[in-house]
């Protein structure tokens, strides 16, 4: 019995004393030499993570951290963060990060990574992540469908084309910030490349208003993907636009259209045409902005038009 107790103590001591390897010296320095640990959840760091002052971070020290503030530390790589498995909040804004993977930090609730150079962000299976902000980065697509996302800021991402917000609890507070608006939850301002935002059928899209959303399609379709490049680059002309009755269209390259869908700015399907010719009748539509979706075997192509 004493032998087993001794082995248990030995293994526990080994794990607790195991030093974590960090590939970025600036990240390690921030953990050791700055007040990066927010002990009382007041948004300010009260101590460093090196509690035994040996200039190393042991696994036991990493496990003791629940809120970490490492903003403005010239960090390029967060390798080693996967050992902080009890982490609930991370603020790594104003650094030089290009890639972040939080798959091992699955109890995190708050993540701020604004003002970096991030192109790839892996946020799979983070059901507790509700507050997320990644403004001013170089992200091309965001998949938050396996998170608990409720509010955040995606603004000033010039390369951002697609956001998947399916399976979340956004039922009353998605807002575009524009002059005169009072936004509270999700911000997309400064994303000129944004084409598609995927949502659930029960989302309350009444809060999407103002000029910015006219360039974006909100879709409740189960297929949350952008069109293939070859089809999306096929130029289509809509005329007249604005339209009163008959909307005509012509493609630069020959294409076989199987279906046309008309969506309002809330992402709701309002009309559907199977095997259309070169025009569709829209006299029964209410006035306003709409998106027309062309579906072919090559993919989908979406354009906007105005109904008078």
From TrEMBL:
Repeat found in the keyword field: yes
Keywords: Leucine-rich repeat, Repeat, Signal
Listed GO MF terms: signaling adaptor activity
Signal peptide stretch: 1-17
InterPro entries, A to Z: CDIRP, LRR_dom_sf, Secre_tail
Pfam families in UniProt: Por_Secre_tail
Keyword Chloroplast set for record: no
Protein origin, superkingdom: Bacteria
Domain Secretion system C-terminal sorting: 238-306
The name this protein goes by in its record: Por secretion system C-terminal sorting domain-containing protein
Organism: Flavobacterium terrigena
